[in-house]
């Protein structure tokens, strides 16, 4: 059992746009304790990051400059300090950590850089750490990692390198259409219709050019045919994911695929891929984030 009274050997931090999550860690990679707060990057000015971090983790500091390793949007241009992108192709988990400016002598904070692609232009922050976590458990993996989320990533990995990747705003589009569009009254439910999702998925996977027309059809079928909100919501998701699969075909067709993310999202993508004859491996995104941060910490200790 972990001793919650002991100080951290180091602190792992996943600092995104809306949330700050931190773990008190031992050098052996064991979790002592963890906290979460709403002090995400979007809520803070540059001089507010250190106080926000101290508020979350001060109980773990031992007075000796406890190392902190952070990933995510904390390293964006609008974050604590910009951690410049590493261009693909690049080894996973080997980028130089950027030191964050701190006034407190008991804090030694570093930020993991994101990854960029110049042609076609693309960027990621945070996902590179989840990828490092996945490869820590399966270093021989050669194939594609799909990370569903607000901005879903399809990442080609080979020989422990990120070779290329592509981002889709599917999750953000779903949120905007559910909350801001004419469809909002048709889909405001948490219920789900699996058959409707699969049917809509097939429509745009085979005919992605029909997406815009198919979206308005959801509204019309609710008015004229009394389509249920559960069916409309599932069809909306299916239409968007189907269009994504059509565009990302080169990333999943005939490839070894693994999914990293929240269970509710990975289950949707797993079902979509299985319908195309792909049987993906599925892993939890939070676990992969912590495994990736731990891998980076171990690498730094080995180089010290």
List the helices and strands and how they pair.
Elements: E1 10-15, E2 20-25, E3 31-37, H1 49-57, E4 66-71, E5 86-87, E6 90-91, E7 98-99, E8 107-111, E9 115-118, E10 121-124, H2 127-137, E11 143-147, E12 152-158, E13 161-168, H3 170-180, H4 194-206, H5 211-224, H6 229-247, H7 249-252, E14 257-261, H8 263-274, E15 281-284, H9 285-303
Parallel strand pairs: 1-4, 4-8, 5-9, 11-14, 14-15
Antiparallel strand pairs: 1-2, 2-3, 6-13, 7-8, 9-10, 11-12, 12-13
Helix pairs in contact: 2-9, 3-6, 4-6, 5-6
Report what the structure shows:
- Helices cover 37% and strands 24% of the residues.
- The protein is α/β, with parallel strands linked by helices and 304 residues long.
- Strands 3-2-1-4-8-7 form a six-stranded mixed beta sheet, with helices on both faces. A six-stranded mixed beta sheet has the order 6-13-12-11-14-15, with helices on both faces.
- The longest helix has 19 residues, at 229-247.
- It is globular.
Question: Can you give me a brief rundown of this structure?
Answer:
With 304 residues, the protein is of the alpha/beta class.
